Amino acid sequence: MFPREANAIDFWRGFALITIFINHVPGIYYARFTHANYSLSDSADLFVFLAGWSLRLLVGSPRPTPRATRYLVLRLGGRAVELYAAQIMLTMLALAILAASATLLDNPLLLEWHNASSVFYDPILTHIGLATLTHQLGYFDILPLYVVLMMMAPIFAVVDRFAPNWLLPLSIALYLVTLIVPLPIPTWPVDGQWFFNPLAWQLVFVLGFVLAREDGAGGFVRRHIDAIRWLSLPIVAVSAYIVWNRLWPDPTLMPQPRLLFIADKTYVTPMRLIQFLALIALFSATYPIIKRWASWLVDFCARLGRNSLIVFCVGSLLSLIGQITRFVYRGDIVVDTVVVLLGVAIMALSAWLPEWREQVRSRGSTRPLPAS
Amino acid sequence: MARTGQIKRLHAAAAGILTASLVAGVAWSEETAPSAVAVPAPYSTECLGGSTEIVAESPLPNVAAALQRRRTIRILALGASAGRRQGGFTHRIERILKQVLKGSNIVTINRGVSGELAANAALRIKNEVAMNNPDLVIWQVGTDDALAFVPLEELAGTVRSTITWLRDHNVDVVLAGLQYVERVAQDENYYRVRELLREIAAKEHVMIIRRYEAMQFIAAAQEAGGGYGPDEFERTGAGYNCLAQYLASAITLGAFGKGMSGRPLLRSQPDQKK
Fold first, then answer.
1. Residues 6+ apart with CB under 8 A from A164
2. For the segment A274-313, what is each residue's pLDDT rounded down to a tens digit?
3. For residues B174 and B57, what is the distance between their CA atoms, to the nearest angstrom?
4. Looking at the 3D structure of chain A, how many domains does it have?
5. Could you report the predicted ipTM of this complex, rounded to two decimals?
6. Which residue range(s) make up the domain with A49?
7. Considering the domain boundaries, does residue A1 fall inside one?
8. What residue in B sits closest to A37 (Cα-Cα)?
9. Which helix (H) or strand (E) holds A95?
10. Cβ under 8 Å to B: A residues 238-277
């Protein structure tokens, strides 16, 4: 089995993975070049949207030859378990990295990083929280969202199968209720709330799922993409101006319910969501150009995107290692350059390895096995 | 790794400071002067041996007004470990305040995001204020920025503008400064960030909890023997309680004994760069 050809979804997914890696190293020089500095939305929105889009590839369209519903539910449930296992492994490795660094550097401050203190100082309850995803390490909070979204995915798939026109309205309704009430998802045993509220972020996921369809809302967008891009241009430009110049409107002056009118990441509020949709409408036009003039870049990012789960996990750990490296070597531009170059190279290696393994297996399967 | 215990004690100290600060803030208000709460609690036996000044004082008029108006204080906590379960700020504050200000309702809202730089927290604070209408914001700031080597002028601009914004919106703010860890005590950047926060607090007349000195004080006491038990956790608990008592007492006395309006900031004992 050879990897599929580079495509726009894999390319943008790879792009999102690289920028998430960079943005998760606070203070790093190169973070100023990621689109989070010019946009209300950031790579998290892109990652979740493309996860929804990929769900469509897994589920298929409702017509003409839908996969068996039972198969779909089991398949998506299995994927949720796979993501959950990745989250648990990632968390344990991150804790080990923090503990090892704190020990080697004789610096207990590292045990306080990223919400890890509760694990070390209050381990009994916190381990329950880790297993139930109610306790998440800082910068390791996207995957728990993805786990919950994948747990919801069978419902999305079933509604899409039997009442496709109802999926988006139902998702929007849940989103609005979550913002209007509002409905925070609490963390435990540390008081707080999920940084990514799954009840709100499910709309980004569903939008990716719905817009990936050739018909329905996806078909509508495809038919009118030029007009949508013209509409998107001022939205993206104005939001870039606001973000760059920090001209945020005073949230206390916004009417109630305020979450509908402010820019907030936890609830991926409408302002942010609209800007994100405008951004992807606009920048999706650039893919053919990038592919034409920088095909190597497309191939590189697409490889990361094809292996997104493993690359995401490796990238998350590399971000943490990058933070510790910057701390030890007093992050300057040289250290930051090394962190980024090495990090991206290791992410690429982690993407290349499974594909290489598959190629070796494919070649091997055509030859007779040696006699034992 | 013996220093890890200091972190725990820090939170108790901070809780004590906050409690005393709130009490002081109430007293500062002319309308509200419940003299009963102005008397600091006596030290417990194990804490009789020392005291220190590790807090920069400032009134909390909006807290006082809220207490006067509706007998309720809404506290929004942001920062790296704002909501840690045991020894965390908010649980202790809530518990102590409910004891001190009997009949009052204390509402704490934890919105700490670990590893968050001040610039990102500043944006979030405004949203959280808009959604939760707090009377007081406790902002643990500086440690993550220091470790990430955020330029000082950038950090200063963020903290100053956020304090100004909060003041303009009738919200009191208490800064919780950097943590003390021996390993980073020599670090010049860490020192500068610590000094910067103090300067900002002094200039803006906002309360700052000098966590660094609090933890340094405990570390020194530990190294000197201190008479604590052999178990690190027992030792941690004892230091924790003492420090909270010292701070609560210092602030309460300072507020009620000398008055707080326009009072210059106190310089702490272990103020010199190591």
1. A62, A213, A216
2. 999 999 999 999 999 999 999 999 999 999 999 999 999 9
3. 10
4. 1
5. 0.88
6. 8-364
7. no
8. B120
9. helix A69-104
10. 248, 250-252, 254, 258-259, 262-264
